[in-house]
Amino acid sequence: MGKSTETHTSPRRKLPSFPPEKPQKEDSTAGPVNLESPGDQSDQKTKLVNLWIISLFIKVLLFVGYHSTDFDVHRNWLAITNKLPILQWYTENTSQWTLDYPPFFAYFEWALSQFVPSVVAQDGCLDIVEKGMYGFPTVVFQRTTVILSEVVLFLALQKYIDSFKGQIGRSRALVVALSLVLSPGLLIIDHIHFQYNGMMYGLLVLVIAYARQEQFLWCGFWFSVLLCFKHIYLYLAPAVFIFLLRAYTLNLQYDTKKSFFHNAIRFVRWTNLLKLGSVVISVFAVAFGPFVYHNKIPNLLERLFPFSRGLTHAYWAPNAWAVYLFMDRILIQVYKRIPLSRLPLHKIFHFNIAALENEDLLNSATRGIVGDIEFFILPTITPGLSFLLTLFYQIMALIPLFIQPTYERFVGALTLCGYASFLFGWHVHEKAILIVIFPATFLVLKDIRLLNCFSLLASCGYVSLFPLIYTCEEWLIKILYTLLWYIIYYFSFRKVASVTSESYSRNAGGIFLVERMSSLYVLGLIPMTIIVSLIELLKTKFVVLEKLEFMKLMIVSVYCGVGIIGSWNRFNWLYFLDESIWQRTK
Amino acid sequence: MAKSAAKKKQGSQPSPSIKGAASPPLNPYNSTPLYNLLCGFRRAQDQWVARYVTILSAVVLWSAVGLGLYSGMGQKPINGDFEAQRHWMEITTHLPINQWYFYDLQYWGLDYPPLTAFHLWLFGVVGNFIDPRWFALDVSRGIENPQIKTFMRMSSIISQLVFFVPAVMGLLHQLGTQKKNLTRMNHIIVIALILYLPALVLIDHGHFQYNSVMLGLFLLSVGDLIKGNLMLASVWFMSSILFKQMALYYSPFIFVYILARLFTPKKTLGATILSFSFGRLVVVGLTVIVTTIIMVFPFLLAASNGSEAVSLIKQILIRMFPFERGLFEDKVANFWCSTNLVVKYSQKFTHEQLKLMSLVCTIGAFTPPCVMIFWKSIRRQSHNPDYVIYGFSATAWAFYLFLFQVHEKTVLVPLVPTLFLLLTTDRSTIAHVQWINNVSIFSLFPLLKKDGLSLQYYSMFLMINWLMGGFTLSTKSNMLWPSGSNLLSKLVIVSSYLVIPIYHLVEHNILPPSRFPDLWVIANTTFSFACFSWFYLWLMYKIYNL
Q1: For the residues A2-14, what does the mean pLDDT come to?
Q2: Where in the cell is it found (chain A) (predicted)?
Q3: ipTM
Q4: Which single residue of A174, A263, A301, B398 could bond B365 by disulfide (Cβ 3.0 to 4.6 Å)?
């Protein structure tokens, strides 16, 4: 009797244990689309852990496959941190693969090196040598550490899912989580190429999850930890900084009843500032303290920020500079083949004609060998210009975040900061595309219009990773796995993304055309991949194709670069001009 | 108050009962991780995605297994099955057709039927176009590089996609539509289980062979047999035999079943017998002959005169059926190899006697299932597709257990039709079939270890069992647990599941005594033989009760 009274009179307290009750509430607020029929809601959903386990088997099978020099890099770091005292970590240079990640990563490598079994140590895993001599046991050990460290990502995503209450929200969070756990980017970069991105992005997911729950201290804590693991995330730091500043430490409400002086003091929430500041500073103190103590900070900074590198990596990342370089290469051909164009070209760009007449230099450039001169006709890009452009676009993204510090704006600003740094940064690796894709994933389900630009971003971004794995044996895996991911998630995202009345009305106009165009562009990746693969396949057959060796890399980066810039434009459009997406919905 | 509580309970869970009415309430697969992975696509309009996802993921899996070593990699001068297939591409593309079966027989002479030769010729032509160095005559022997490896891996993947995958999907669709208590998701789950089939994946894409083509052709034949297209069924079946002679394991049953289908079941036995359709028999017979002639026609065409044609055909047959080899070659989990521990056959009997003994035993083993199903088929009005699956499985197991010159890889022949029994809601059957699937993988372990495929073996083994819920302790969702079987079956299955991990622990950590270097291999084959025999008896029992 008592029991039934309780269930009858206070259903609210029982809510967590009765999932079917809550969605009815959610349904009414979720907009016109409720694709899941009520019968399905009581049914089971794919569990994150199951997907993780099934991907585990594929990852284990990849043990025997190709791995890049990054493998030896990390092996060398294991050796350095294991064999040397901490003060030599950032000065050791027997191998060219010196330690150039921040201290937490070094500590992490040190911790891993404590678990190296004797079989693996005998295999040469912990030798400080110029070039690693290791066998299968080392591969198994290091690959296993990547798989195990990816648990961070899995737990972070599980936390993210658990922070949702309603059925609809949960199923959306689940789709986001599943797509990240199975991300082909992680498979290609971590499990074939070899890096520890799974763990890094796990920490980033934690930052986002805590931001969603408005637990700002944790958000700041995890972001500082992340920065001390890998400094590439400095690119995202402006967004996190502005978000925490505005949402946690500033108080912009002007109380007209109190004096100006009172308001000026109240402008900063001092206790919050103190709490956040001490959290961040203590994380950095733990990381950099030992090096400050040993006075090794200059060495450390020199390693972390090597400014001597060129604008582009040997293989062009698909960003604005790839397109810019491509324009330059086109203009060279125009200049060489069309005599009439020479004068106007020279008038416009004021380039050095002598360099263009030097055939060796020109050939090395068109073959993609990184030389002193990167640009022949178009003006040279300086690190300062690249930095200014990045900063400009980041600041543009931060202004709306400062005005409206919602979670949605925050993730949007993170994505745009990632975009700016990827598109305009100096010496960007193609692997850095994950820094855009990961935050963007969290936004997709907010509105169906974001899905379209996300699908362009993700497909171009992941396809641009293909040249990273150039071995023929992995060819089929990387392509099919990406295709599989795309099919599953484009389909699932479409199903659960919310369609607002806004997106319907907009669809009627020119946007419809834009979306069709971007879908076509994504489809165009298929013939592009086929052409590039055919060039690769038949290069021994036809000598002409061997000359095109660099051409195929250029095709990939320019095609993907244009796609990513296109998705960036669309994203900017929605970010700056569409208020409805970015408002807080609880 | 109590009334309101009851009402609430009723109201809070209306959907399961509605769903229960629409689909079977006790679908055992619904609690497995495999179903859980696919459940996002369970609605009818999404199921096509599930199919493509299953196939794509299977291909990813095959190519991931293909990253591993292949048989005889780096083992000069003779290498292994991989080199044999590559060598055949080499000779078929460079030599005139009448020399294919004669050229340098000491170095991997062609010993598969003509269709294999044509199949390899086709891939050889493509490969020669891409890089002629891969298949340069004689020069390319033992060639090893990532490119040729990738090419060969791709050839086996494409073969499986073209022949095996459509056949599996077609057959499952056919079997499924006749079982009303199954949902489409069930079909997709069984498709996944068969496409991920560890034994086949490890042999075709790890060790390297093209079994999937032979099995695919055979499954196409089964599909037509169930439909009653006896002619088409015999065309597919002859193609299967002419691709790989191993398909002969199925032949007694297909003969018996076609014969049974020529009768029209009537009320009395006499009327049934009188209904026998001689016309259709002749047509089927002619189909078989014509198919064979078409397949060997290129050889006849190449022969300059009649006697050369005869000698060519004779050579093909000699190469296909090497009767002169021993009772068994390597250690294999069949009757002869296992009982050889007690009775030393090669010392007690002559080669001829052994051949006769093996033949008699095999006939003795495959006759009971054939006769039972023949009898049941002509006595019943409706054709139960289960007869075909049970019949082929039992016959093929009989061959595997008692024929001589059986290879461990041959376990695929009985295993593949057996797996189609997974399309059921009967927990006991599922558990038995998955059990024999596991034992089959286990029986391949010595071979795979020799090939350096231990990692692939363990991952595939764990994966398929995990997909079936094999690592949960709840007997409700663990498909390996034979609920509903009798105590003896449970005992056999559980104890063998205990033996397998123990075996691996012992085998991995302890070297065999120097007096018996093959001790672990023999332990493996003997154990597998015991399990296979038990399964054969279980099949008999099931057929009897059909």
Answers
A1: 37
A2: Endoplasmic reticulum membrane
A3: 0.90
A4: B398
